[in-house]
Automatic annotation (TrEMBL):
Residues 2-293 form the Glutamine amidotransferase type-2 domain. SUPFAM superfamilies: N-terminal nucleophile aminohydrolases (Ntn hydrolases). It comes from Rhodococcus rhodnii LMG 5362. This is glutamine--fructose-6-phosphate transaminase (isomerizing). It holds the Pfam family GATase_6.
């Protein structure tokens, strides 16, 4: 079943409330996905300090502080680490691609679950609200966040199988539903050189979108191309550093609600996750049409 929530803040005065608002939204979706959860926060100064790139990993081979010290020695600049077990978020004043390369060299068995200039990805197994508090989500700030509660259908209940899938710089995708032809598309992408980290159908969608964006498509076009190629029942929320987009399958089988005010835009699988947002009584609330981006 799964639950999706997302919040994009247009008003800077609300940035300190991002984490608390997102936690409230996530808490309303726990019954839709009790297995595991994940979240992505854009712009939090603790997780992704301004002017620094960020890499989020699972399966760190050494304690977070030791890994940060090894990376600092390798890249020649200070690398910080935030230990949100099982996730470790690393950050430093160098290009994201260079920090990713250093992590791969120093910790080749670690699984990279996100990277960019402003995003931190946190994943874990267990009750979604308990994970949110363990990760410090209520205290997080920033301009945008997405989160997901998972009820596993296509792959095992693991932290790496949790959403969001972040396979492009500052990009995240969360998914409610399932793709029925993802293995066919996965084989096509593999022949084109794409490497996968899991057997999850959502990762196929994420890597398809990331490839379209890398080849010059904008987010709307990338999702329209996904709709042309992927079969199944789904609602997707895809975020970048600037925005997020929502799309549903051709018969809109999976639920979605969007609320918009001059101060923020929010999306959730059900309206109850939006009901606690400030100014919700005056928001424009609507349900996306089938295939509408």
């Amino acid at each position: 079943m799964c639950g999706i929530v997302g919040l994009h803040l247009r008003e800077a005065s609300l940035y300190p409330q991002l984490g608390s608002l997102l936690t409230g939204m996530l808490g309303q979706m726990c019954d839709r996905g009790p297995d595991s959860a994940g979240m992505a926060i854009y712009g939090d100064p603790r997780l992704s300090p301004a002017g620094e790139s960020t890499v989020s990993i699972l399966d760190a081979p050494t304690p977070a502080n030791e890994l940060a010290a090894e990376l600092s020695a390798r890249v020649g600049v200070a690398v910080g680490a935030v230990d949100s077990a099982p996730t470790v978020v690393l950050h430093g004043a160098l290009a994201a691609a260079d920090l990713v390369a250093a992590v791969r060299a120093v910790a080749p068995t670690a699984r990279i679950i996100g990277s960019g200039d402003s995003v931190a990805v946190l994943k874990g197994v267990g009750d979604p609200l308990e994970l949110a508090h363990r990760f410090g989500l209520p205290a997080a700030s920033g301009w945008q966040g997405v989160a997901h509660t998972r009820m596993a259908t296509e792959s095992a209940v693991t932290a790496e199988g949790s959403h969001p899938f972040s396979v492009g710089v500052d990009q995240c995708l969360v998914h409610n539903g399932s793709f029925s032809n993802h293995l066919t598309i996965k084989r096509e992408l593999e022949r084109a050189g794409t490497v996968f980290d899991s057997d999850n159908d959502t990762e196929v969608g994420a890597r398809f979108v990331a490839r379209q964006l890398a080849e010059g498509a904008d987010l709307e076009k990338a999702l329209r191309l996904l709709g042309e190629r992927f079969d199944g029942f789904y609602t997707l929320l895809v975020s970048t550093a600037e925005s997020f987009a929502v799309v549903r399958d051709p018969i809109a089988c999976k639920p979605a609600a969007i609320a918009e005010t001059p101060q923020w835009v929010a999306m959730a699988s059900e309206y109850r996750a939006l009901s606690g947002l400030p100014g919700i009584d005056d928001a424009r609330i609507f349900e996306p049409e089938p295939e509408e981006v």
